[in-house]
Amino acid sequence: MWEQLRDEGGINGRQVLIYKRLNSTNTTALNLSAEGAPPGTVVAADSQSAGRGRLGRKWQSPPGLGLYFSIISRPRLGLSDLMKITLTAGLALRTAIFATSALETELKWPNDILWRGKKMAGILTECGAASEKGRAVIIGIGLNVNSGPDDFPAEMGRRGVSMRMAAERFYDRGLILTAVTEAVEREVKRLESGAFAAILRDWRRWDASAGRQLTWLKPDGMPVCGISLGPDENGLLRIKDNTGRIHQVISGDLRLRDDGTDNN
Ligand code: BTN
């Protein structure tokens, strides 16, 4: 798959850098953006030795099975818009998965793509340093494409799923990389044009948590139990706790309570 993208000169003229193995495509993308890499540059690796997830978790990245890549973006947006970018990228990823496989996935705030409650993909958005060109935002995406049930780490139990497992067929990772990259670029343009309210409306259609009981583990480890009211107009999650108080969630771990399958 990689060779084909190289031969064809990237994705729609975008620079696509493909590596056999990296520590983390996000780290390489952050370094390249500091050196002035053009926006739209895609950094992909067949495997990662230190793939990162949210909340300091690892993202297992064995060769030949998944997509691990980072898009360098320089959106005309502020630092406070980072959450909006993550939600926008999630919607784009969902759209691209559906377009390439007809699989109906759901979105779990802020960055997970679920299929029947199991995790198919995750997004890690990180900010580069500000320069005269603006601030780079790295949109890192890990998507389980051709993994089988035994390819997930033991600690994940049965909570991971791939496109192959869901659709019972293998997929060409190059085609999916192209579809996701184009969808992310399209949606981020829409966000830059001020259409976050419309993006949020679309996002909410696929919200896996809305109206469901969940436990939010605050960054200090204290649990808050309540019902998800979905993201607000800034992309922050609102949870109504059992006393009726509404909390605004910026970060921390979220566990849906009804089925216990998607506690990532
Ligand atoms: C999460 O679910 O917590 C986010 C996972 C993001 C993983 C991707 S893989 C490509 C990119 N490089 C990284 O080190 N992480 C992201």
Describe this structure in words.
This protein has 264 residues and is of the alpha+beta class. It has two domains: 2-205, Bira Bifunctional Protein, Domain 2 (BirA Bifunctional Protein, domain 2, 2-Layer Sandwich); 213-256, SH3 type barrels (Roll). Helices cover 27% and strands 31% of the residues. The strands form two sheets. The protein has a seven-stranded mixed beta sheet with strand order 1-2-3-7-6-5-4, with helices on both faces. Strands 11-10-9-8-12 form a five-stranded antiparallel beta sheet, with no helix packed on it. A hairpin with a 5-residue loop joins β8 (213-217) and β9 (223-231). The radius of gyration is 18 Å and the shape is globular. Mean pLDDT is 91; it is low at 259-264. Bound molecules: biotin (BTN). Residues 24-26, 48, 51-54, 57, 59, 68-70, 111-112, 122-124, 140-142 line the site of biotin (BTN). Biotin binds at residues 24-26, 48, 51-54, 57, 59, 68-70, 111-112, 122-124, 140-142.
What secondary-structure arrangement, pairings included, does this model have?
Blueprint: H1 2-7, E1 16-22, H2 25-34, E2 42-48, E3 66-73, H3 82-101, E4 106-108, E5 112-115, E6 118-131, E7 134-144, H4 163-167, H5 173-192, H6 196-205, E8 213-217, E9 223-231, E10 237-241, E11 246-249, E12 253-256
Parallel strand pairs: 1-2
Antiparallel strand pairs: 2-3, 3-7, 4-5, 5-6, 6-7, 8-9, 8-12, 9-10, 10-11
CA-CA gap between termini:
29 Å
Structural class by sheet pairing and helices: alpha+beta
In CATH terms, the superfamily of the largest domain is: Bira Bifunctional Protein, Domain 2
Largest sheet: 7 strands, mixed
Order of helices and strands: HEHEEHEEEEHHHEEEEE
The strand count comes to 12
Strand adjacency order, main sheet: 1-2-3-7-6-5-4
Shape: globular
Provide the CATH top-level class of the largest domain: Alpha Beta
Q: Could you report the average pLDDT, rounded to the nearest whole number?
A: 91
- Named at the architecture level, the CATH assignment of the largest domain is 2-Layer Sandwich
Quaternary state of the chains = single chain
Gyration radius (Cα, Å) is 18 Å
Bound molecules: biotin
CATH fold-level assignment of the largest domain = BirA Bifunctional Protein, domain 2
Fraction of residues in helix: 25-40%
Total helix count?
Answer: 6
